[in-house]
Design goal:
- This protein has about 300 residues and is α+β, with helices and mostly antiparallel strands.
- The strands form two sheets. Strands 7, 8, 9, 10, 11, 12, 13, 14 and 15 form a nine-stranded mixed sheet that branches.
- It is built from nine helices and 16 strands.
- Helix 7 packs across helix 9.
- Bound molecules: 4'-deoxy-4'-aminopyridoxal-5'-phosphate.
- 4'-deoxy-4'-aminopyridoxal-5'-phosphate binds next to helix 7 and strand 13.
- The site of 4'-deoxy-4'-aminopyridoxal-5'-phosphate (PMP) has 14 residues, from helix 7 and strand 13.
């Protein structure tokens, strides 16, 4: 596979050119500044929307049916209707990658409650709105190892919105991320309302101890598609893999810690709350999982170009 620098040579410059891309908005592809949504959209006014993020690797789309199915489950759970079927949305996502010639990139699907009058009553909205963007998007931490802190902001599912719903209310996660930034580290861990480990602000968390790989239950954490993939590939490779109730102690005393997510991929964690994790170097198992994940996305992506 290509190295990050070879694969995304122009990513920095392209950020300024994102407005050149075509965006799907409710039935049409719109370019540049035309790609706008209404200020009356309840997704904007109240964060009343659900979403997905999907990657392509060398012209192959990864786990599209799983992402679209999760979108539909998020929509069902929040009672947002979708005018398109799962097959139709999948086709729109593929078309969005194609029209923008994004062979190595990321797509964002947003399904919003739609345009409505003021007031959060969902009945104020006429029809839901679907937008799909595709763009170059290097792994969030650019394949580096990171440092974390434990945030005081809690992940509320399942007491509030169920964590399996990928809804656009990310303010808790953003507040946690702000704490990490203020403390000069890269990312934050979030606990559930009982103090058990939930996940990071945009990734799931795994620990490795004595060759066993453990991760918190997906009750206050999103049931990540990368999380599922990593559990599958680790198990196939002969690792013991288990979901557990975990606390930060399990991370402090682990041999290795890593995060998983579509946008971030597999991210080694070397320090949490000032504690060095394991040897302080990227561990053997994390490196192995990174390699297996790369092989897996190559082997399991569906060609769309
Ligand atoms: N947790 C949260 C809060 C996220 O936003 C994400 C990214 N969508 C993940 C975990 C990872 O999920 P996935 O592997 O499906 O991208």
């Amino acid at each position: 596979m290509l190295l990050y620098a070879e694969k995304f040579p122009a990513a920095g410059e392209l950020l300024g050119d994102l407005h050149q891309l075509y965006v799907y908005i409710d039935g049409a592809f719109v370019k540049g500044d035309g790609a706008r949504v209404s200020v009356w959209d309840h997704g904007y006014l109240y964060g009343d929307s659900v979403f997905e993020g999907i990657r392509t690797y060398e012209g192959r789309i990864f786990k599209l049916p799983e992402h679209v199915e999760r979108l539909f489950e998020s929509a069902k759970s929040t009672s947002i209707n979708c005018a398109l079927t799962q097959e139709e949305i999948s086709e729109v996502v593929i078309q969005t990658f194609r029209i923008n010639n994004i062979k190595d990139g990321h797509a964002r699907i947003m399904l919003s409650r739609g345009v409505g009058t003021m007031g959060l009553d969902p009945r104020n909205c006429r029809a839901s709105s679907l937008t799909v963007m595709a763009y170059p998007f290097p792994p969030v931490y650019k394949e580096k190892a990171i440092r974390m802190l434990t945030s005081s902001v809690r992940r509320k599912g399942p007491l509030s919105v169920d964590a399996r719903v990928k809804c656009s209310n990310y303010m808790d996660n953003i507040l946690a991320k702000l704490q990490a930034i203020a403390a000069g580290v890269d990312e934050a861990l979030m606990l559930d309302n009982q103090g058990y480990l939930a996940e990071a602000t945009g990734e799931n968390v795994f620990a490795v101890k004595k060759n066993k790989i453990v991760t918190p239950y997906a009750t206050a954490a999103l049931a990540g598609i990368t999380r599922d993939t990593v559990m599958e590939i680790a198990h196939t490779d002969g690792f013991e893999v288990e979901e557990q109730n975990m606390t930060v102690h399990d991370l402090y005393t682990a041999d290795e810690v890593f995060l998983t997510g579509t946008a971030a991929e597999i991210v080694p964690v070397l320090q949490i709350d000032g504690r060095t994790i394991g040897s302080g170097q990227v561990g053997e198992t994390t490196t192995k999982i990174q390699q297996l994940y790369k092989e897996y996305v190559q082997a399991h992506g569906s060609p769309i170009f």
